[in-house]
Design goal:
The chain has a seven-stranded antiparallel β-sheet. It is an alpha+beta fold and 145 residues long. It has helices at 15-22, 28-31, 116-119, 121-143, and strands at 3-11, 35-40, 51-58, 61-73, 77-84, 89-97, 103-111.
Length: 145
Amino acid sequence: MTVDVLTEIVIDRPIAEVAGYAADPDTAPEWYANIDRVAWETDPPLRVGSRVAFVARFLGRTLEYTYEMREFEPDTRLVMRTAQGPFPMETTYTWEPAGEGSTRMTLRNRGEPAGFSRAIGPLMASAMRRANRADLAALKRILER
């Protein structure tokens, strides 16, 4: 079963500000409730080929995984895929204008559960959707202060 979760939010800040903050791996623990730690495996700044390790909590488990940046168009799109970890995943951020000084950000997670994750795929998608909505709401609160 493929998991494919798409969420979006409008943030009342310019694209450069939203994209700059959201695409910076160092800010992830500030707006992703489940991410505890981030460590660069390659030197910053973010670019295609950059690798960033994350430690997160999800569904009562601690997960360690590394994302590799596959596509990066500043202020437009970021695509990252797990280079290793328990659940092969692709995460995509997109940013587009949503009116004067506002940005529509979409967050999409797609993956193919394996092992234990396969058995709980439907539960995982539902939990991921709730978490993504909460994370984007946190991002909005931070940036609209």
